[in-house]
Amino acid sequence: MDATQCKMARAATGLGVRDLAKLANVSPDTVARLERGETIKETTIAAIRAALEAAGVEFIAENGGGAGVRLKK
C-alpha cells in the first residue's frame, strides 16, 4: 500500500485520519506520515492496511494501469 492508496481508501470509506488511526491502533501522526509518503515500518503499514480491509477496502495491484483501491461488494 502506498500513500495514494491510503488516501483513496480513506476517502472511499469516509474514515478520517483519527478514525483510521484508532482502527489500526497507531497514532494519527503515523497515518499522516504514511500519506505524505514518508517511510514507516512495514508492520505499521500492514496494520493500517488490515484496518482498511476490515472497513471494506480491496487493494488493486499494479497491473499496467496503476495501483488502486475499490470497495468490496
Summarize the topology.
Elements: H1 3-13, H2 17-24, H3 28-35, H4 42-54, E1 57-60, E2 68-71
Antiparallel strand pairs: 1-2
Helix pairs in contact: 2-3, 2-4
Folded structure, characterized:
There is one protein chain. With 73 residues, the protein is mainly α. The protein has a single domain (3-71), classed as 434 Repressor (Amino-terminal Domain). It has four helices and two strands, in the order H-H-H-H-E-E. The chain has helices spanning 3-13, 17-24, 28-35, 42-54, and strands at residues 57-60, 68-71. Helix 2 (17-24) crosses helix 3 and helix 2 (17-24) crosses helix 4 (42-54). The longest helix is centred in the middle third of the chain and has 13 residues, at 42-54.
- Through-space gap between termini: 20 Å
Counting structural domains, the number is 1
Q: What's the total helix number?
A: 4
Q: Could you tell me the number of beta strands?
A: 2
Series of H and E elements: HHHHEE
Overall mean pLDDT: 94
Q: What best-fitting shape do the alpha-carbon axes yield?
A: globular
Beta-strand fraction estimate: 5-15%
Strand order of the largest sheet: 1-2
Computed structural class: mainly alpha
The CATH topology assignment is: 434 Repressor (Amino-terminal Domain)
Largest sheet: 2 strands, antiparallel
Q: Residue share in helices?
A: 40-55%
Q: Oligomeric state of the chains?
A: single chain
**Can you tell me the residue ranges where pLDDT is under 50 for at least 5 consecutive residues?**
none
CATH class: Mainly Alpha
Rounded to an integer, what's the Rg over CA atoms?
Answer: 11 Å
Do you know the CATH architecture?
Orthogonal Bundle
Task: Let me know the CATH homologous superfamily.
Answer: lambda repressor-like DNA-binding domains
